[in-house]
């Protein structure tokens, strides 16, 4: 009971293959049409897939260097610290209560001793529930922040490709299925500049 075990996992993309899910729709006269990252489509058969216009983003670098990501990590750590303090304060009070009961128990009546014991057991159960609730709260906070960052990244990629220049925007990382990517197709730095500029502007406007 004395140790609070709350794990704060690192925000990351896990198994990201592509930042955009490319949809395929049937065209009655022309065959298959590929939807680009901008939402427009152009005719492309399987035979011409090698003509696809592709770029990639290093998702590891994107997350690590996105300033909003750093801020959210700080926010999550502060939230975790605050919750831990609440738990530890209540735990110290509980331990003092248990010690007091142990000292007085020999002089209590059987009925009063049983009542106090049940009360302490109820408090112990409540502490366990508190620990579980805190872990869930942190997990939900992390998920919400993770989702918000991902949505900002996807929106910025759409903006970057608003003219429909590219058909695929792939996510490349140490754990992705993409084993090799030509550096000339890497647009990570450009997207990072756009994302961090927006983040800086949002802080100024507040």
Main beta-sheet strand count, sense and barrel state: 3 strands, antiparallel
Q: What are the low-pLDDT stretches, counting only 5+ consecutive residues below 50?
A: 1-47
Coarse morphology: elongated
Q: Please report the total strand number as a whole number.
A: 5
| Major beta sheet, strand line-up | 1-2-3
Structural class: mainly alpha
How widely separated are the two ends? 43 Å
User: What level of helicity do the residues show?
Assistant: 55-70%
Strand % is 5-15%
Separate helix tally = 4
Order of helices and strands: EEEEHHHEH
Q: Which whole number gives the mean pLDDT?
A: 79
**Computed CA radius of gyration, to the nearest angstrom:** 27 Å
């Amino acid at each position: 009971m004395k140790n609070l075990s709350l794990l704060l996992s690192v925000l990351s993309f896990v198994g990201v293959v592509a930042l955009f899910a490319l949809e395929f729709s049937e065209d009655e006269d022309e065959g298959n049409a590929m939807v680009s990252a901008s939402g427009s489509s152009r005719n492309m058969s399987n035979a011409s897939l090698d003509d696809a216009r592709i770029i990639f983003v290093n998702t590891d670098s994107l997350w690590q260097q996105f300033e909003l990501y750093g801020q959210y990590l700080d926010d999550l750590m502060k939230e975790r610290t605050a919750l831990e303090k609440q738990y530890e304060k209540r735990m110290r009070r509980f331990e003092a209560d248990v010690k007091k009961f142990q000292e007085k128990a020999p002089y209590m009546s059987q009925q009063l001793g049983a009542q106090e014991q049940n009360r302490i057991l109820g408090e112990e159960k409540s502490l366990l529930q508190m620990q579980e609730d805190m872990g869930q709260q942190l997990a939900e906070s992390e998920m919400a922040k993770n989702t918000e960052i991902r949505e900002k990244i996807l929106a910025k990629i759409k903006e970057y490709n608003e003219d429909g220049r590219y058909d695929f925007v792939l996510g490349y990382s140490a754990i992705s299925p993409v084993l090799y990517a030509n550096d000339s197709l890497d647009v990570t730095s450009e997207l990072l500049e756009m994302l961090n500029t927006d983040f800086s502007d949002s802080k100024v406007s507040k």
